[in-house]
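Review form for a predicted model. The reviewer records the input and the model, then writes brief findings.
Reviewer: anonymous (R2)
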Amino acid sequence: MELYEVMRSTFACREFTGEPIPEDVLHRIIDNARFAPSGGNRQGWRIINVTDAVRKQRLAELSLPTATRYLLQVAAGESPLNTIHPSAVTEEQVAQAEAPEWLVAHIRNAPTLLVITVDLSLIASMDKDLDRIGLVSGGSIYPLAWNILLAARNEGYGGTMTTWGVAEEPEVKALLDIPEAWAVAAIMPLGKPQKQLTRLKRKPVEEILVTNSWNGSEN
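Model under review:
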C-alpha cells in the first residue's frame, strides 16, 4: 500500500475474524517495524507474542479495573484518567461497578497478542525531574508500537494499542516473567479485521498547527 494511505486508514481494530497472523507475516511486520527510532538508537525493546489462552485471559482480567474506572469517569463527564483534574469517582464506586468484560474482550480473544516492553535502564528520560507525569520515555518505545500497527495494516491486518493492563504492571510482569528494570508499554491485540475503516475522523490541520507561539502569532 502507499504510505499515506496506510497512515490515513490504520484504525483501532478490536473485532477480528479469529485467524491469527501467520508466523512469517508476523516476522515480516516486526522486521520492518524495528526500524523505528529510539533514544541513542539503543533499541531497548522486547516483544512477547502471547499465544497461551490462560495468559490472554489473565491479561484481560488485569485490564478490567482500569477499564472500569475509565468508563465511570466518562459517565461522570470527566476526561478519564487525566493527571491534571482530580476525579470525583471513588475507589468504592469502581469496586462496586459491574466489570465491563466487553471492553477487554479483544484482549482475551485476540488471534495474535503482543506485549511490548522497554528496558528503562536504556531510556534517557529528559523530563524525569519535572513536576508532572513523565512523557519523554515513550519516545523510545511508542514509535515501534505504531510501526507495528502500520506494518500490520500494510499486510491486511489490524489491531490496537491498549494500555489498560499497564496499571497492574507488577502482576503483568510476574505473569510473563518480565525483568525488574523493564516496563510494559502496551498490550496489542492483532488479527484480520471483521471490517476495514477507510475514512477516519481527525481535527483539521488548521486546529493543530500554529506558528511561533501557542496562539499562532507570527511576530
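Findings: The longest helix spans residues 53-75.
Further findings: The CA atoms of residues 4 and 60 lie 33 Å apart.
Recommendation: see findings above.
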